[in-house]
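Q: Is it fine to ask for two folds in a single conversation?
A: Yes, each is treated on its own. Send the first.
Q: Here.
A: Result:
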Amino acid sequence: MSSVRKPFKTHYDALGLPPPPESDDVSPVEIKQAYHNSLLLYHPDKAQDLPDGYSSAELLDAVIAAYTVLSVPRTRRVYDQSLLLHTVGSATGSVAAFAAATENAETVDLDDLDHIEICTVHNSLDDYLRGIAAPDAACLADKHCNFIEVWSRSCRCGNIRGYVVTDELLEQLLDAQEEQGGRTDGGELLTQCTGCSSWIKIAFELSG
């Protein structure tokens, strides 16, 4: 996983929106409006007093990446699940209820999941989930392309890519663990199937 600087803690921060569960009722229209507002806010001709010394280009890249994920209900759901689990400590509801729902979750190794790099300029995570995205060799020579790493696994409900993890979600888990004095070299990511109520634990270790 890369160690690129991140100007915002979450995608919601990048768009000036509250994180879940406060953002649960935010509509796609409101997300699109927040996206356009952020584009204007960090435009090179308008931006002033940029946060923490970040360039306008870095901020705009973060805004575009945020909108790519949050504008699609399916990918937003995947993102929200991991964000809630590892910044709050449990999904919405009581810790006891969450523990009961996940206590029998199977543990699998990240290396055993299908892996792909997706160019978010020419494809989207939702395209991949629907089986219509593939690596584009032409993207490798395009300096404007932005790649994300995606791991997936089928679920017993029949969803071929029911469990989905991105490099960004893993990095967010590590950030949350570090803030709590925990591990920074690996961990376990609890992930719910996008098509049913099943959960798995995805164990991973950082290489090097």
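Q: Second one now.
A: Result:
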Amino acid sequence: MYNEIDGDFDDMAISTFKVGLPVEHDLRKSLTGKPITSVVQLIDRIDKYKRVEEDQQQGKGKAKIGGYDVKRVLVDQGNAVEIMYPDLYKGLNLKPKDLTAYDSPLVSFKGKTVVPRGQIRLPIQTVSEVVEMNFIVVDAYSPYTAIMAKPQLHALGAISSTLHQKVKYPSESQVEKVVRSQSMARQCMVAAISHRLEAESSASAEKSL
């Protein structure tokens, strides 16, 4: 009798813990999608969940490009190619010799034609997945450091929601998510507006001369 109780203890503890979590809780979904068989595995899964959650809260679980944590990344599922702007190009200490030729001109958000400096292939890490992507390097202003586009989203099998400010994608038997920073988004918006106003002011001043 005691042996039977001892043998069922792990299953009982895991089941009780899982039932105590909200239905939509990510940890409960993880335990359901990828079942465990012992309390030791349960503790390991909880620890992993906490680390990922802490990383996301600290901004470390969002995106790494070329092995470095990168902020101000725009996810644009309507864009056909990944874009790298000057801030990231300089931050990664890249040189012209690191780039390969890319001759096709691009059209900016303002409708202007932009001639790329070249392209480079770099690994992108989002939480637990790593994929290599070609970045088109452009010498143009942007409040963002890079744009993640269709190729990366398709490689991850990801779905981007502008309403919920999240990107979700399957990883093993669970769903990972990347959460957008609202404060960073506001900073980028303010920077973009300030840059436009400065450009318009400079253009007006030149016309008056």
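Q: Anything structural to flag on that second result?
A: Two points. The chain has two domains: 2-57, 64-192. The first strand starts at residue 64 and ends at 65.
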